[in-house]
Design a protein that fits this description.
alpha+beta; Kinesin; ten-stranded mixed β-sheet; 12 helices; 25% strand; binds adenosine-5'-triphosphate; binds magnesium ion
């Protein structure tokens, strides 16, 4: 099935720092403030840079500052992707994009064990994934979890201790982590299979059996991700994180499927001057902006159907790993996060422009399904086969008799 990338915008509430600065709220959801849009209709977001200067943008959904985490999970289409698309054999990708501090990590969620109302998409998706395995696959499915980060253009396995140790002296990994400082980070390499599938060589893929188990693993993994405090966000992600669930199962009708659910929490675009970044923070910022620019170029190449230009996937690790999610075999949802504050107007406008472009991207998601026959059908075919063999033998025998005992070829 062909489909455009679904683009959803979330406007977070004004932060306390924005309030302290005396910022005004200039980005609002028309749907939230003026009633709900009918199903399927695009939703409208308003940017009022001045009372007389208002602009409107249309997206597949617009979630305003009063939207709860549950609303975001459901109305973004994330829930449908998990309980529906995955179990039809489609790959699904959710991608959080936006300026630093705009709410990407909050929206995606990290610890999968989190069952509070603040739980983000990740823990909700894990719950629904296993719930749906119970109802649609009679409990029979294999789920493998992998989790990596791209930090300063290096790929690190967040599920494994030895490849994800941060040794840059200023990077603030979790304080309580007791990993030996001696082992140098071992960046992983991207490889391609003969049929052009991109994968990360040596990346851990661990079988998981319950949301609780995933919760524990992701909590550990999230501690390994590089997070630091900047002037724009006290808990700023300094890397892009890609969390993937490979689901292999058999539906009740006997259909065998393999599909991949990918959740991406990007590092935020930032203006070095505003974040006050220096030294390694600034270097991170440069890498972050560079790979996001590549992503932007891929998005714009894909959105322009007439352009003969090949999307420059190979220009960054991020775009290479997201090749299938953008313009490839996946149903993709892009969650653009914005601050409502006038102070961030320029960055928010950039995010909205980007999101508008992304709406034009067409993906070709194909079902990853192998038709499997039931044991009853197998038995029936076996019996039919035996019967046919018997008939062939009888006919050969009859033929031999007709041709007066002259030898027949079997
Ligand atoms: N919808 C929301 N409601 C309440 N608090 C929020 C919301 N969105 C974000 N926040 C808070 O705002 C701060 C910044 O959010 P977050 O860390 O998710 O931003 P980010 O987009 O991931 O930034 P970065 O690119 O720097 O990683 C956090 O303290 C977070 O808890
Ligand atoms: Mg973040």
């Amino acid at each position: 099935a062909d489909g455009n990338v679904r683009v959803v915008v979330r406007i977070r509430p004004l932060s306390s720092t924005e309030r302290d600065r005396g910022c005004k709220e200039i980005i609002t959801s028309m749907t939230q403030d003026y009633g709900t849009a009918p199903d399927d209709a695009a939703e409208v977001l308003q940017v009022a840079s001045h009372p007389e200067d208002k602009r409107w943008f249309e997206f597949d959904a617009v979630l305003g500052d009063r939207a709860h985490q549950r609303d975001v999970y459901e109305r973004s289409g994330a829930k449908d992707a998990v309980v529906d698309d995955i179990f039809k054999g489609y790959n699904a990708t959710l991608l959080a994009y936006g300026q630093t501090g705009a709410g990407k990590t909050y929206t995606m969620g990290s610890a999968a064990g989190d069952s509070s109302e603040h739980a983000g998409i990740l823990p909700r998706a894990c719950q629904d994934l296993f719930e749906t395995i119970r109802t649609k696959c009679d409990g029979n499915a294999k789920v493998e979890l992998s989790y990596l980060e791209i930090y300063n253009e290096e790929i690190r396995d967040l599920m494994s201790d030895n490849s994800a140790v941060a040794n840059s002296p200023s990077s603030s990994r979790h304080k309580t982590s007791k990993r030996p400082k001696a082992s140098a980070p071992k960046p992983l390499k991207i490889r391609e299979t003969l049929n052009g599938e991109v994968y990360v060589s040596g990346l851990t893929a661990q079988e998981v059996k319950s949301p609780e188990e995933i919760g524990g693993l992701l909590e550990e993994a999230s501690k390994r991700r590089v997070v630091a405090s900047t002037a724009m966000n006290a808990v700023s992600s300094r890397s892009h994180a890609i969390c993937a669930f490979l689901v292999k199962g058999v539906l009740e009708g006997g259909e065998k499927f393999t599909s991949k659910l990918t959740l991406v929490d990007l590092a935020g675009s930032e203006r070095i001057k505003k974040t006050g970044a220096e030294g390694s923070r600034a270097l991170e910022g440069i890498h972050i902006n560079k790979s996001l620019m590549c992503l932007g170029q891929v998005v714009s190449a894909l959105s322009n159907q007439k352009s003969k230009r090949k999307p420059p996937y190979r220009d960054s690790k991020l775009t290479r790993l997201l090749q299938d999610s953008l313009g490839g075999n996946s149903r993709t949802i892009m969650l653009a996060c914005v601050s409502p504050a006038d102070y961030n107007l320029e960055e928010s406008s950039n995010t909205l422009r980007y999101a508008t472009t992304a709406r034009n991207i067409k993906n070709t998601a194909t079902k990853n399904i192998v038709q499997e026959i039931s044991p009853e059908e197998a038995l029936k075919l076996q019996r039919e086969n035996q019967l046919l063999k018997q008939q062939v033998a009888e006919l050969q025998e009859a033929l031999r008799k007709v041709s007066n005992g002259s030898p027949t070829q079997s």
